[in-house]
Amino acid sequence: MIVVDEYGDEWCTYAEALEQVSALTCAATLRGWVHAGKVRVRYPFAPSRRGAMVCLTDVLPLVRDAAGAGWRRGRRARREAGA
After folding, report:
1. pTM confidence score
2. In a domain, 31, yes or no
3. Tell me, what DSSP letter sits at residue 16?
4. Domain for residue 15, yes or no?
5. Contact 6, 44 (CB under 8 A)
6. Any bridge partners for residue 53, and if so which?
7. Mean pLDDT throughout 56-76?
8. Domain containing 35: what range?
9. Is residue 73 part of a domain?
10. Which of 3, 28, 40, 70 has its CA at 20 to 30 Å from residue 14's CA atom?
């Protein structure tokens, strides 16, 4: 279930974000973006961290930019052309 807040931002759970964005297959990538502060997160059942919701509006531009920069799904990065 995607929820839209009063500012027009879309929020969903981690699992739903992985379902919505087909290019994002690794949950660790999404957690890394949240940890780095690139993606906002809300805890609607505070102080419990269950049911954390991520901002889907923040995720989509990151996936687009990462794909344009040669980002690959999986553990190994793409080798540079000159290397």
Report:
1. 0.72
2. yes
3. H
4. yes
5. no
6. 13, 42
7. 73
8. 6-68
9. no
10. 70
Phi (first) and psi of residue 11, to 5 degrees = -125, 140
Q: Tokens 């919505």 belong to which residue?
A: 20
DSSP at 79: P
Please check whether residue 5 is in contact with residue 54, taking contact to mean a CB–CB distance below 8 angstroms: no
- Position 82 pLDDT exceeds 60: no
Share of the chain above pLDDT 70, in %: 80
Tokens 């991520």, residue located: 54
Whole-angstrom distance, CA of residue 79 vs CA of residue 9: 36
Number of domains composing the chain = 1
Cα(54)–Cα(41) distance, rounded to whole angstroms?
4
Q: Evaluate whether residue 26 is within a structural domain.
A: yes
Res 50: pLDDT: 78
Q: What is the pLDDT of residue 64?
A: 82
| Tokens coding 10 | 């879309």
Angle between helix 27-35 and helix 56-68 axes, rounded to 10 deg:
110
